[in-house]
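Support reply, case 0932

Customer input (verbatim):
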Amino acid sequence: MGLRTEISERQRRFGEELRRLRDAAGVSAPDIGALMGMKGPAVSHTEAGRLSLNLDRLHTWLDACRVTDPAYRSALIAMSESTGKGWWTNYRGLVKHAALDLAEAEADATALDNYETFLIPGLLQTRAYSEIILEYAEKKVEFRRRRQQVLDIENAPPFRVVVHEAALHMMYGGPTIMRDQLTHLIEVGQLPHVTLQILPFDCTVYAETDTPFMLVAGRHARLDTVLLEHPHGSSFMSDPEGVAVFRRKFDQLRSLALPPLDTAKPAPSSAFRDSLGLIQHIRYKVQGR
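Our regenerated output:
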């Protein structure tokens, strides 16, 4: 079998996970290669995501590394056997590879946690808002709209999101577009699997992150991934310690943010502040512009 020239995030992560297991078990690359009848640099190619493993060899690898957790083994098998094909396949060459990788990860996620600073989260954007942010690039806007359907499917993954208040004040596209966007936030925030919180300007505790990120929960906790947004692109982080850091950061952000948007519960008092009240207040101000 030839080596892959294009490696998806799933394939890269699978290889990285195999290497991490082998290192933790103290098994050398030549030794594990010998167990599977792999010659030369085949093991390093496998760990780099350039070469796949058949099911028998994967079981041999996991046995050699003393992996006994059945749920973890099952998740690795599913990761290995996935074709990587889905609706996003039709957008190859039209959007960035990181966007394709994110769409594939979202489709297989068991939960999604998102923090945004100056933008409305992509999964919660209206079409008009996306058009402004993506500079009217038709295929990119279409791709983002297609991604949003992950929240509409049966058994959609729980989506917890914290948005900094700054994003609600940015008048991208003008007052009409932002008013409609804020209305959409209120509507989608009522979905049973969506938990929307706003981090207010008057928060007095530093949350230790200025970087937007998304935590993508895999089929096993050891396969969770973080997508980091940078000014010049996106990158994935998968080492357990790094993921744990961002998990703690997200928990802290949730504790600092206003209570979740919930239109079904009346405010306990006139002094009560929650995410719904803040969004409604800002929308009212936008309407007056």
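We compared this against your earlier run and they match. Two observations from our side: The domain at 94-287 is CATH 3.30.870.10 (Endonuclease; Chain A). Strands lie at 111-116, 159-164, 194-199, 213-217, 225-230, 233-237. Please reopen the case if you see a mismatch on your end.
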